[in-house]
Amino acid sequence: MEERVTRCRKCPRLVEWRERVARQKRAAHAGEDYWGRPVPGFGDRAARVYVLGLAPAAHGGNRTGRVFTGDRSGDWLFASLHRTGFANQATSRHRDDGLRLEGAWIAAAVRCAPPANRPLPVERDNCLPYAARELELMEEVRVIVALGAFAWDAALRLEPERVRPRPRFGHGAEAELPSGRVLVGTYHPSQQNTFTGKLTEAMMDAVFARARELAYSSERPDG
């Protein structure tokens, strides 16, 4: 699965952008070898919580090769996952830094860094089958945590049948899905949200605490 993701070249605009960023680099990382390819999901293959983001950051996951690794959004996310018992450490700087997830898997709806962090609908649709396949393989997943409205919409599109009425995104919003899973929303841990106080540590911790409660205390529909 990981090999299929990292070889993908379905979206010419994203291929050109991710590779250009990897060549030009940011001055702070000029001496590093950028990943410059699609970024696969990672974590605990027996996860009950599936965390879905938007896309890798140009100088984060596109540089390090691991989603949310090496950028400010990831710093915020992994700190929360550590405080709520899903990660063994609070920071993540590179792929081999010892980070382990327990009970959680993290992926992006779009696996390549997009220009201006804004994927096109066709790029989202080209990429979603990878997330769908991950969910097929990880049968223990009971909760999907969507980081932001884009991921919320993507998660609804992953369902085998349309969700009606369509649940609205909001921080702390919950929706029971036809698959039997529960979708939980949180504001994305972008600097735009964390620097302004729209998203606080307590708010994000509450979402992951709720995800843990849903994942480990509720019975499966077929149980």
Describe the structure.
The chain is of the alpha/beta class. The chain has one domain: Uracil-DNA glycosylase-like domain (Uracil-DNA Glycosylase, subunit E), CATH 3.40.470.10. Helix content is 36%, strand content 11%. A six-stranded mixed sheet has the order 1-3-2-4-6-5, sandwiched between helices. A hairpin with a 5-residue loop joins strand 5 and strand 6. Helix 4 packs across helix 8. It is globular and about 45 Å long. The protein starts with a helix and ends in a 6-residue tail after the last helix. The relative contact order is 0.16.
Task: Sum up the structure in keywords.
223 residues; alpha/beta; 6-stranded mixed beta sheet; 8 helices; 36% helix; 11% strand
Q: Distance between termini?
A: 28 Å
Please estimate the helix content. Answer: 25-40%
Q: How many domains, as an integer?
A: 1
Uncertain runs are: none
The class by helix and strand makeup works out as alpha/beta
Query: Helical segment tally?
Result: 8
Principal-axis shape equals globular
The H-level CATH homologous superfamily, spelled out, is: Uracil-DNA glycosylase-like domain
User: Architecture, according to CATH?
Assistant: 3-Layer(aba) Sandwich
Radius of gyration: 16 Å
Write the layout of secondary structure elements.
Layout: H1 2-6, H2 12-24, E1 42-43, E2 49-53, H3 61-64, H4 72-83, E3 104-108, H5 121-137, E4 143-147, H6 149-157, E5 174-176, E6 182-186, H7 191-194, H8 201-217
Parallel strand pairs: 2-3, 2-4, 4-6
Antiparallel strand pairs: 1-3, 5-6
Helix pairs in contact: 4-8
